Amino acid sequence: MQIDVSRDVFRLAQVFTISRGSRTEAKVLTVRLTDGAHQGWGECVPYARYDESLESVEAEIRGLPDAFTRQSLMDLLPAGAARNAVDCALWDLEVKRAGKRAWELAGLPAPKPEITAYTLSLDTPDAMRAQAAKNAHRPLLKIKLGTPDDMPRLEAVRAGAPDARIIVDANEGWTAEVYADLAPHLVRLGVALVEQPLPAGDDEALIGLERPVPVCADESCHDRASLPGLKGKYDVINIKLDKTGGLTEALELRRGAQAEGYGIMVGCMVGSSLAMAPATLVAQGALVTDLDGPLLLAEDRDTPLVFDAAGVHPPQAALWG
Questions:
Q1: Residue 240 among the catalytic residues
Q2: Which H or E run contains 62?
Q3: Which of 142, 233, 240, 243 is the catalytic position?
Q4: Among 142, 144, 233, 243, which one carries the catalytic annotation?
Q5: 144 is catalytic
Q6: Residue 19: pLDDT band with limits 50, 70, 90
């Protein structure tokens, strides 16, 4: 089996800012696996938060042996971006060999559209109110917070989009005291979910803390091995394929988390429709779907995902799976 790795860059529709910094483009790695008759592909987004770079992830992928399966890949690479791209490419290759769709191979019902969040870039309160007003027609907005000026921004977004459901992502920027102080205001403003309020290494402070707004684990949850450490801290987990290391582990993590009573959120890094396509299978029936990466881009893959009033649609076979 031949492995090809390429670096691709997609321009963003506008500058995208979170508490960790700003960007104007999405830099991704595309993996193509060829067996001589068929080709499968997948995409990953290396993330510096997890000590990943384009160079390090590409080296991991190029270091793989000539022959492997989705099962053996779990031992060859750790959970992360490299395994994600290869695992998703293997799924795509397998379904093309079998003449089936990915959900059939996974034993899942045919997927349907899911309403997805749309993320507002971190900015001044006035600018975020304008962003919210422009996107007030969207049923679910996500706000990147995690700064000392969070409340004015949140108030501004609610004023700009009075009817939208809102979730917030603190990006590990709060303390337990800040969350407790903000919680009544989050309830008043109709916030439905708070994502990763505390740093992953300091989230023991969530144990025993009253959580009137459900708290979701993002940086604290990577794969099934993360689940024991989440007990008593979180109500929901955010499954991202670049954290789980692909669709194979993501589906297992969803099953394991649901069995333990966690709600499911399915999120993404900022990537193209190819990166989101496998995640649409994991997102079926999720409490929150956050697969808006392509909506933030000025350019996308050929045969991109369809986004409309019904939400994000599953991929066409020409894209993936």
A1: yes
A2: helix 54-62
A3: 240
A4: 144
A5: yes
A6: low
